[in-house]
Amino acid sequence: MIFNVKQNMTIRFFAFLLFVPTLLSAQKGTVKQDSSHGYSYSYVEGDPLKARIYKLKNGLTIMMSINRNTPRVYTCIAVKAGSANDPKTNTGLAHYLEHMLFKGTESFGSLNYEKEGRFLAEIDTLYEKYNSTEDEAKRKRIYKDIDSISQVAAKFAIANEYDKMMQHIGAKGTNAFTSFDETVYINDIPSNSVTDWVSIEGERFRNPVLRLFHTELEAVYEEKNISLDSDDNKVYDGIFSALFTRHTYGLQTTIGSVEHLKNPSLPKIREFYENYYVPGNMAIIMAGNFDCEETVALIEKAFGGFEDKPVKQLDFSAEKKMDQPVVKNVFGPEAPSVTIGFRLPSASSKEAELMKITDLLLTNSTAGLFDLNLVKKQQVLEAYTSLFPLKDYSVLFMAGSPKTGQSLEKVKDLMLAQLDSVKQGKFDERLLRAIVFNQRVDDIGGMESNSGRAFKMMNTFVNEIKWSDEVKQADEMERISKDDVIRFANKFFLNDYAVVFKRQGVDSSVVKIDKPQITAVEVNREKTSRFAKDIFDNERKPLKPQFIDYGKDILHTEIKPGISLLQVRNKENKLFRLYYVFEFGRFSSQKLPEAINLLQFLGTDKLTAEKLSREFYSLACKFNVYAGNDQMYVSLSGPEESFERALAAFENLLVNAVPDQQALNDMIANTLQEREDTKSNKYAIRSALGAYAGYGKKNPSSWVLSNKSLKKLKAEELTGMILQLTSFPHTIVYYGTKDSIQLVSSLNKYHKTPATVLPAPESVKFIPVENKEKTVYFINYDMVQAEIGWTRNAGEYSPARQPEISMFNEYFGGGMSSVVFQTIRESKALAYSSYAYFSTPSQKDMPNMIGAYVGTQSDKLDSAIYAMNALLTSMPQSELLFSASKASIKSGIEAERIQKQAIVFSYLGMKRLGIDHDLRKDVYERMSTINLQDIQLFHDQYFKNQNFNLFILGSEKRISKKQLKKYGKVKSLTLKDIFGY
Hints:
By secondary structure, the protein is of the alpha+beta class. Helices cover 41% and strands 18% of the residues.
């Protein structure tokens, strides 16, 4: 259990928003024009991001925001075309193309494109023949020809060369996504790699080549099968198909139909690229530490030659008003739920701020109508709203989960009743001002990260929102009155919604995509194109790594024996973050998580839990309590101007919480239902199954109170655990603008602790299994895919081995350029996702663990296990990949800046491992001497000829015990075995 953002609290009750917030209150929004070094750009007066918007002659948009905090740049290349633009006869094209943009061009990803191209053309022809053939026997013969020629073509291809170049220049988070209106390509690069990044991306988007298509197509098949196993996907597909009967938002899905996936058309994919990947329909978005003028010049050189042309706009008829709700039922193994969807205007409409206000009135994680009337009062198990703004329309979702014995229809009625309260004006108008205050604080927090800046700019481009409107959004929200909200709600929230009841049961409509016969292709790990070689040979201006000096970079103050203060000053903005860190957690007491969970429902002798939540939201502060395995955190964050009031509030609750047995009884009933729901969630099952395979019956996952013990809990005892909390040793961590004198003064005033602290409670220790024999742990679950995991105890942790561990994870199993990913996905097409890792502990007396994973179709289980076992037994060697991995680690450390409160948590993390310095320094220095043989020896020691426990989640209809016996002694487990209840 965690005390999450939906359960934030406050204490002392001032008049709701009695004080006037001063944060970001200036008017803004005027668009200005300027130029520098021959490049004109627009900007918006009062924009905290100071974004510059350039437009090249060919129509390409460039959006830039400078942030000097770290020498990194977050990049998005956005194309305003997604699944909504797919032709109805070939759905899934935008998503296909996204995958293929990682395969290279004529210049990279190929050893000899002149030769390769002839075979690729033949594959094109065969696919078109395959798609027009209905006879299944003939189709199989054609596909066999496709597979055969693909082997020949692959001899000239270099798999993952794009990823290798990104790895070499120090990029992180290399990825892409496709949604309804957009396809976006993402990288996080060091500042000294901007030139290389622009060069690579300019070539990448110039003329992509659809190589290694049939193995990548199999990865898309896997992605489709994952979606077929997802109950959430069924729900949202149901909502969209009900709300949009004319627009492609509801007529087709992002991944595409099974039938279209089986019959892909390469010419149609190219046609999609030609139609939509044009300068006027694209934007390059960058946020971070770089030079605007120099970078615009680089982008113009790389992209300025792209020819612009008119983009065909999506043609659709306006959706008709629905006379009555559309009701759908979907089925699956996961817990029941109900989701309601209302169709609203576009993200760029004049109603944009009203849509957002209404969403936050209903759910803001603290003081919304859903938060207080449904969640806080435990009327339902869960309830929330979510606004999904899109270019042509938007959708407001309302979702809820039932308590024990409660019908989905009842949950639906309870949620709609809260919406009726908005329509009838049954809400405090002062909540509107609190929403704006919180929005301003969230905007400041969003500016702290490059990714937050980049995604804000990207969303405005994709949804065609004027940047000036985005900048002044909070100001516009502040002008909205209660009457405005009531009028809006009564206009748009009528009886024309869609509702999907997600019920537990067998879904007979699911049809998986069968495994095609694919022969593993060559990946040419040791080969390099001339283009890539130039990138590898380029000299970049070196960045000097910065390591933390825990003595100088942290202000240490001893409050009293057992309680210390670690402080870092915030020189960036007016926000604060305060933590109380305890060196014990749920492993010290199975009752502790329940005590923490109860806290959200408790008040004090003067204030109810509801009033506390409202007050805390008025301060724009978040109060969080979280019990980890062997650590616990109490945290407080918000604007510095609210610090004193918020500190008084949350300290008051910690020492004056009043027991409430009825609230506890309701919480216990809901917890029992949550446990039943968890036992139907495949991700929770896989996690618990992995813990059982790694540790046996007594493991971290199952260390919880039994249902019987849960029912016996008393509110007095649990509340007493909270009231006693600050009597134990703890570390106070503060990041904010206050100096130590001010901070200590406030803490002495409000943070009450005994003269002598109590000894910290001891934690139970979990011992991993010894892996004396190979064992296969199996859980039956109704699903299309099979989730396969490997685990073993890797012995005692030694800080001296950290450089080898970091290098091994990067090289062997960590990313898209790793040996595991290249072999399992790129060469053999056995999975959408696959990885392996050597995991280090969080404290020095805990062991290392090794893990590996493949998520694949059930009919590929044997092939997947064989392929991963081969890698665990024998590690392929590639000097080229090793060099790129080493370069990635070095550039990553050079460009990394641990800042803010993370400095303190780095120190505490090292301290728990018995290390007194920044361990990154050891890793960085070792990179100059480490070699591939060192990594081979590491693999030989920890992986080769070792017994691994296998754990598998899948359907017994598709996976037999006889099949599993090939891999070890089979143990079929029950859900009670792995969860402990």
